[in-house]
Structure formats: C-alpha cells, structure tokens
Predict the structure of ABC transporter permease.
Amino acid sequence: MSRLVNRYGPLLSTIMIAGTAVWLLMMVVLPYFVMAEYSFHVNVPELERGGPKDVYTLANYASLFAGTDIFTLDLADDLKVFVRTIWGASLVTFLSLAVCYPVAWHLAKVATPARAGFLVLLLIVPFWINEILRTFAWYIILAYNGPLNAALVGVGIFDKPYRWLSGNSGVLIGMTYAFLLFMMFPLMNAIETLDINQVEAARDLGAPEWQIHRRIVIPHAKPGIAVGAIMVFVLAASSYIVPALLGSPGTRWFTETIYQWFFEGQDWPRGSAYAFMLLGLCVLFILGVMRLFRVGLTDIAK
C-alpha cells in the first residue's frame, strides 16, 4: 500500500484502489452472494417469492445425490455427469501438461530467441479468433467425413472413419487445444529461470535426458506446473462451449446440466446450488495441487 502511494501519489492511489474495490464488489462479490442466497431457497413462482412457501432448505444440494446407491455404486444421473466432469477435466489437465512440457522446454532453453519468438507467435495467432469459431473449426476437422478421418484413412492408420464426436474424444481434443496456452506460458516462465549450467553439469556427469528432466527440470518447474494445472482444470471444468459443440448427449458436461436447470428447467435455486458445488470442487482442486507440489501462493504468484 505504501509503495503504491509513493509511486502514484495519494489521490491516484485512492482512485485505483476504489475502482478495483467497486469492480470486485459489483462483478464478483454481489453476483456470488445473490447466487449463494438463491441456492438455499425452494423453487417457487416469482409471485410467491418472500411468501410462506419460500423457505430456506438444503434440498438443492442434496438433490445431486438423490437416488444414489453407495453400496452398488449406482449413481444418480446428475452425479454421474459431475463425476465425468471431474475425470474429464483432470484428463484434459494431464494431456495439456504432456503436450506443453516438451514444447515449453524447447522454447525456453533450446530454441534461439528469434526462433522462440516466432514459434510463440504461431501459437498465439490462432487464439486471436473467437473461441466459438475455433470450436466450430474442430467440429469440422473431427467430423465423420472431415479432413482428420480422410487423412488417417488415406495413410492406412484407420480402415474406416472414426466417430470422434460421438464420445469423449472430441471434447478432450477440443479442450486440450482451447486451454493449451494456459499451461504453456506458466511452464515457460518457470523453465526460463532454470540455470542451464545445472543441466550441462548433469550431462557432463553422464546423466540421461530423462533423468535430467526428472531430477532437475521438473522439480524446478513445479510452480509453473501447479499454475498451469490449476488454470486448465478450472477452465475445463467450467467450460460450456466446447462440450456443447463437440460432445454428445451421452457425454454431457456438468456445466450443461447447470445451464439446463437455470434456463430450461427454470429452477434457479438448484442451478445455483450445482454451480456452487462445481466452485467448491475447483477450490478443493486448487488446494490439493498446492499441497501436492508443495507450493504456496507466493510461489504461484512468481
């Protein structure tokens, strides 16, 4: 606070702090507060809100587990979707890390600055296009008679076209691509701070490449991996466009269920409760990643 005042003066600092506070209050705190209050109400017509039938309840949260048999693992429909979303978002996070790690290493420590800048530009340019258009592009690429199947069948990898859009494959591919940069840049930033002399010393001592990455590079890049994993998981779990366009009815995402309760079922209390359970899941994942990688908020902020 004192550094901010010393740099910009008391008047400008007060305006900046007040503007930030108003923005957070109006765009973050109040909407969440209203949604939280909604989630504890029963679903009644608008004219009956505030009346004797409009009471507080935990039924909206319990409804996610209604009809679930724990002993036979027979889950309720909405709970199945919730579990599928957790698994899918975790898999997208792992795929993003697997794809981005070698690229981030190459850009940070192998490529020349000019080449690295050119390759980063090639990565960024497609993301100047709207997310919906990029998702539709993947819809065309992954179509049954699309260019991907034509190429795979043409080179003899597949005997017949594969239905990418009838299961989880299309959603996983689309999400991995959509959130690639959120894993790439934290990894690059973390790897760039590694002293290359450590790697050279390990090579001089005869260490193979895989051991260098396992014992030197990956431990050093833990904050970057943690930040990337958090961002990709949260964005994947809360994504709506990609699973709606590239998924099928049997691979519905939990965000689609929330949308249905809000707008098709007109049950805002249940939709709010489901949204907060998804938010709680994301918070638990963030805390779990921080504990797993043994990083704190200071490490992540770097």
